[in-house]
Structures are given as structure tokens and as C-alpha cells.
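Title: Prediction job returns without error message
Component: structure pipeline
Severity: low
Priority: P3
Assignee: unassigned

Description:
Job completed but the reporter wants confirmation the result is attached to the right record. Sequence as submitted:
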Amino acid sequence: MTERLYKCGYAHCQHDEEKSPLSEMTRVGKRYWHKDCAEIKDKIDIAKKYYFDYIDCKNEYKVVVGVLNNIIFKKKYSPDLVIFMMKYIVTHNCKIKSPYILHYVVKNRILHEEFSDDAKRAKVISRFEYRQRQEQNY
């Protein structure tokens, strides 16, 4: 008997609407998603959390989500780079007055250099984690 095929439930699925067997899918809520689609969604959720917790909580939720989806799915930037960008913004105390500025920050040459250099990336991440611990203590 053939294995049952499932369609991915993620709206931004990159698999061109292909159906996959259950062994290649993961269950999120009541729907089945490709494993990499679920991973991308988790990373976007982390980026949203960092934006609203550390950068600016006054902006409308759907505007921020739209900007992040545009950066990741239309401009094809890595979700890992977007998470690193949020940490970079927080550790360097960059003032972000509008979420649309993120379209320009993600193009920053210095950001890409620090993301590609392991030592510099580790330094930004450790400074961000230190800041997280400091805020948890208060």
C-alpha cells in the first residue's frame, strides 16, 4: 500500500505545492508542514520576538510581519541573517523608527561582513545574550 501524501500547510511554502509523504513532514498544530518550512517559520517567530521585545513594540504587528516576510521570501535573504540583524541592531543600539528601515539594514555591508566572520558573529551573539541576561535580572 502506498504511503499517504500531504500538502504543506505553510502559506510561504517553497516546495511549489508538491505533496510529500508523512516521513518528510512535521505536524504543526493540526496541519502538516515540510520540516524546512517549519524551521523557517520558527526563525521568523524568533525575529519577530526580538523586534517587539528589544527594538520597538509600538509598531503594528502586521506591518512588521510583512516587512520580515518581504525580506525573507521576496528578497531571498536567509532567516539566520535576519535573526543576526536583529541581534546586531540591539547590541549596537541602532535607532529604528520604522520597520521599513530593515529593508536597508539587511543590505548593510558591515552587517554581512560580521555575519560571514565567525569571530565577529560570536562577539555580537555573546553581547546580545549578555544583554538578555541583564534584562532578566531586572
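Comment from assignee: result matches the submitted record. Residues 35-55 form the longest helix (21 residues).
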